[in-house]
Amino acid sequence: TRFEKNTICFGDHVFLVYKDREYTYAESLKEVNRLAKSCYACGMSGEHVAILLYNSPEYVFLTFALAKIGAVKVPINTKLSMEEKEYIIQQSDCRYVIGHAIDRIPFTSLSSSVKETVIRYGEEPDIQTENKITDWSHFSDMGEELDDSQCFVVSSPESLSDILYTSGSTTFPKGVMLTHDMLLRSSFGTFRTRRMEQGRRILVPIPLYHIFAYNEGLLAALWVGGCIVLTDKKADGDYILDLLERSKANDIICVPIIMIHLLEAIGEEKAELPFLHAGYWASTCPDWVWNAAKEKLGISDVTTGYGMTECGPIIC
Predict the structure, then answer these.
(1) CA torsion, points 198, 18, 80, 86, in degrees to nearest 10?
(2) Cβ 86 vs Cβ 99: under 8 Å
(3) What is the mean pLDDT of each run of 10 residues along the chain (316 residues)?
(4) Which of 9, 48, 90, 230 is deepest in the core (most CB within 10 A)?
(5) Backbone φ and ψ of 81, nearest 5°
């Protein structure tokens, strides 16, 4: 797999930063394999698996673990209403749900015959359900008796990797089917066109359930033995500025409103960020933000792009 190849080349390079904890590629691969065996032992191989997690190391490791066993990841916006979550889980034929907190999982829809197991990540629920509920601590050790190679499923480039749901302006959300080939080609194009240097550290203050963070951050970083820095709370300006300093990030990908909050936090002074040299934000952006970001953050490489989830995702 792409991740295993990276570990051979960049084993001691930092791959993930979260709450001041750094994970190297080698350490991350161990976690990926551990979760892949647990997913396999749980019966997830080849199945559709809904992910209702906040940005976290577990989210990242599960992304590659599910791909390794030939499962299809269905990431769900944690901010959706319970009814919207239920619709996506049912419409995408998910038989498993991995959730971060009990109040974020739509249990009312999970008693149907197509749902088998819910893996929770949080406190014990006080709720009645027909579904089997497995606590995260138990789940993560379920495959410890398996060998790493036992659970590996060879997928073709055209096999589904993810189903991402986009908002429906006039009707229900639609599930976009993305293959391994689509995602790898798109992320390869990103690292080439953005001229990413080896080991680039990318601050990702946006959710990984969105294609922008997933493709332009997580997957693009893989090609250069790079690293992603995840936020662990709301991305207000002061917090992002502090995290840029502490993580020594080289790059930030975000939406314009986050960049505006960051510039407001800096004020009239220029930020001292010697490691930061690139920024990439998409969507409609006021003109003044571009030059202000270059001036106050010292960014020499400012990028925007056009794309959509249905295109896998970046067009230009």
Answers:
(1) 90
(2) no
(3) 86 96 97 95 93 93 96 93 86 88 54 55 55 81 88 90 87 92 95 96 97 96 97 94 97 96 95 97 90 95 90 86
(4) 230
(5) -70, 165
